[in-house]
């Protein structure tokens, strides 16, 4: 079983001391972080990780969690401060609902994400924004969903990141405006600048 090491941690009394968990992935394999791995046995041991602060998941498929991921990850709400998702699959609303499980979330990393096509679903006007989070580092790599960023700004009552690492990511201007009062460190990449210049030149030639 994929989560069998958790039993040994629990038996040794080490579960409360675990602060970081990584669900690794491999190329050419199907996503394995799905509800099926969380049977009653493994979920009991998974919920014993009561002090987790850093969660990394490769190839998460949020479309496989029709009732949401709260049942499986919601117990990390009081402590989790950092989330990294690599090649996530799902709609932007599914990712937003996942992030909203963690009101103390400060650091976010998303790499290789293109949202599943969906009709735009407006956020509930009665939604109470989460306050105080998103104050650490944001890392976006090969990120193509500006709409998710807009929804996160609404759901978290703004963004307060102090550091950004943006590589081939859409929504840069939106992020800079949202974090204008808090941003201290910004990492950008030369290839991105060249691509932007090429687009400007192509557009200028059409006008000539």
Order of helices and strands: HEHEHEHEEHEHEH
Task: Give the proportion of residues in helices.
Answer: 25-40%
Please report the distance between the alpha carbons of the first and last residues: 63 Å
Low-confidence stretches: none
Radius of gyration: 19 Å
Q: Work out the count of structural domains.
A: 1
Identify the overall geometry: globular
In terms of structural class, how would the helical and strand content be classed?
alpha/beta
The number of helices is 7
Give me the side-by-side strand order of the main sheet: 1-2-3-4-5-6-7
Tell me the total number of β-strands.
Answer: 7
Strand content: 15-25%
* Average pLDDT, all residues: 86
Tell me the major beta sheet: 7 strands, parallel
Structural features:
alpha/beta; seven-stranded parallel beta sheet
Brief synopsis:
The protein has 208 residues and is an alpha/beta fold.
Overview of the structural elements:
- The protein has helices at 5-11, 40-46, 70-73, 92-99, 146-155, 172-178, 190-207, and strands at 20-23, 54-58, 82-86, 107-113, 137-143, 163-169, 185-187.
- The chain is of the alpha/beta class.
- The chain has one domain.
- Helix 4 (92-99) runs parallel beside helix 5.
- The chain is globular, with a radius of gyration of 19 Å.
- The termini are far apart.
């Amino acid at each position: 079983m994929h989560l069998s090491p958790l039993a040994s941690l629990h038996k040794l009394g080490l579960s409360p001391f675990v602060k970081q968990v990584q669900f690794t992935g491999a190329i050419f394999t199907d996503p394995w972080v799905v509800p099926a791995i969380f049977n009653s046995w493994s979920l009991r041991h998974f919920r014993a990780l009561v002090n987790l602060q850093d969660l990394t998941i490769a190839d998460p498929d949020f479309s496989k969690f029709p009732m949401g991921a709260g049942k499986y990850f919601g117990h990390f709400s009081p402590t989790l401060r950092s989330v990294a998702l690599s090649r996530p699959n799902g709609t932007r609303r599914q990712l937003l609902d996942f992030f909203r499980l963690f009101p103390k979330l400060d650091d976010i990393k998303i790499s290789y994400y293109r949202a599943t096509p969906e009709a735009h679903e407006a956020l509930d006007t009665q939604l109470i924004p989460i306050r105080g989070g998103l104050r650490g580092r944001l890392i976006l790599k090969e990120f193509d969903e500006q709409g998710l960023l807009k929804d996160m700004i609404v759901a978290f009552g703004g963004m307060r990141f102090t550091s950004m690492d943006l590589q081939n990511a859409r929504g840069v201007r939106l992020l800079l405006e949202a974090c204008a009062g808090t941003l201290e460190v910004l990492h950008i990449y030369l290839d991105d600048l060249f691509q932007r210049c090429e687009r400007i030149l192509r557009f200028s030639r059409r006008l000539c």
